[in-house]
Amino acid sequence: MTDSRAIFVWKLARRHSWGSPIPARQLIRLVAGSADHDELATVLERDVLELPFVVRSPDGIHIPNGQDAHVAAANWLRENTELDDFKISATLSRLPADWPAKE
Hints:
It is built from five helices and two strands. By secondary structure, the chain is mostly helical.
């Protein structure tokens, strides 16, 4: 996965604990590796926080535990990454049993 937005979303999905917010600086460190922190902070502010299923609270950034947020995040990951459906559904615990809905 090379798209910084996708890495942020995947880290939020994987690292949040029952919807617990992650402080922005900690999230950037999780994503950064050897990448530029300032550039990633811009991606977080400009691109990731604009996603409808990503929330910023006083305690940090997270994907809420509601099913709607998890479905939106799962669909976004499905469209924007090469992650398989099994991995996504095993990670986002609030997905309905029939996700992804057959079209």
